[in-house]
Amino acid sequence: MVAEVRYVIFSTQELSRALITAHQGKGGALPSGTVHSITQDSRPGVKVSITIAPDRSSEPIMLDWTEDEVLSALVGFCRSTNIPLPASSSKQLGRIRNSLCLIITINVTDDKYRDFEKAIADNTK
Length: 125
Hints:
three-stranded antiparallel beta sheet
């Protein structure tokens, strides 16, 4: 069976929109303000943090998302923007340069994945 690996790479704006939309969809209110920064966080259990500069306060507000929450938000973003994602695929978070991405795999066994990684490594030399 043919194996497939696909990457969907998100800009900072798309990541921000995905997280904020997911947060609001769960009934979470965001403070009125401007997104100041989005960072991938190294704290345990936290994958992404958004810092918001509120309109009425000088203290920035930080909102944290776990890896599962980020993954769910990005899948939701893809669905809402008509980016096709196969239902039977495996989905995980990854990084390409400084951007978050979804890694979508279909029919990828450990042996096929090792072959894929080797082929990529051989082609980048």
